[in-house]
Amino acid sequence: MVLESIIGVKEADFLGLLYASVSIFISIWIFRSEASLVMVFFMVFASLPLIYKTLKFEAKKDYFEKYDEVSPRTHINALKIFMYLFLGFTFAMAIWYIFLPSDLTTEIFSSQISTIKSINSGGIESTTGDITHWGFLTTIIFNNLKVLTLCVIFSFFFGTGALFILSWNASVISTAIGNLVRTNIAEYASTIGLIKIGLYFQIFSLAIMRYMTHGLFEILAYFVGGLAGGLISIAMINHNFQGEHFKTIIKDSADLIILSVILILIAGLIEVFITPILF
Length: 279
Hints:
0% strand, 10 helices, 82% helix, mainly alpha
């Protein structure tokens, strides 16, 4: 889309919301039978100019940083842009999942629903006892590290390749949130016989908090890893293989990857030991 050239990077907070909404309706209109995947591709295509522009800008920063002074804090604004974009994706798709007719949402989010069912059926049903908790934690961390590795590899080979993985994760998380909201509202409706407007906001807020308590750390880790791979990719595209500048980029990317692994560990601990207590 052309909005990036009009509003600029710093004003791009609402783009995720806009891109997801437009992608959903275009996929329904043109590719309805494959809407669950087509809408993800549309979100990726729409976001590519913004992400590439951001990565290119961040890569230039390393040329003005000394080797010993470079740190992940240099890229805090880029990470904010990525997170806003992801949250916009998630919020928009969750809203449409909740308010569109149930038969239509089942059709639009069919692949995401199948993925959630597969995760639930293959997951650990009980997490009681220290051994099970730690076993569950190991499984979660291992799976998240695999996704992180894909983000780094995709970004390295395709520049913005991690964007597809992150867009897909946003669609799965929003489907889980929307399904949780619908299920709880149906239970309340059958119990009290009516649905109040405030109930929507209450359940929606709880659903967001349930998945984002640990999910924000996971997604931030994927963005950090994707940024690391993207920085190296941009440097290679520009044929910057030698000199102190390339060494600075390598050090910067290595620091970002280490930070992303730490975030994955934190997210796993929160998901296993804190989220079940709160929700």
